[in-house]
Amino acid sequence: MLQHEHADATAASEADRLLVETGASPVTSWRALIRYLALCPGDAGVIHMLGHDGASIHVGALYHPVAAARGLLLDLLATGPHALIDAFTLRALQTGSSFRVPIYSAELLRLWVQPEFGAYLDRYPMTDLLVVPISSGGRRIGALRVWRERPDAGYTDADVLFVEQLVDSITCGLRLSNARLHQI
What we know:
5 strands; alpha+beta; five-stranded antiparallel beta sheet
């Protein structure tokens, strides 16, 4: 229980820092969050947001610490808005549940991602995925996916809990900031 409370306090504190740093702007907050998560418990990540119609999906933010890898992700995104969407992101959007996916086979992973994403996997093989839905006001608005490219470490239950709490704290902070703007 104490570990859970510590993770919650750490996530809330980090969310507050990110919101202050970005001025609670949704676009910059999601970018700061994915950058933080790519550098902290992951190696890279992407945030997918549902469009206002609730059916379309677009990339809200992506990050990789290696400029060439980040450039490749951006090039893939330029081929079409759905190039970075995969079955894992769709599952999180449909179920509202977070989950981890250890990658035991690159060939098997290719069955679950867009064919264009194979160019990325050829250069930067994934070893583990963590997917967390993003909800606001009781409805799902997106999904966050971070991944590891190092075989030495998989995600843990504590990682899942921390990322869920961080996402929830950011979403809550953005809702509060938006409510304050509408009161003015």
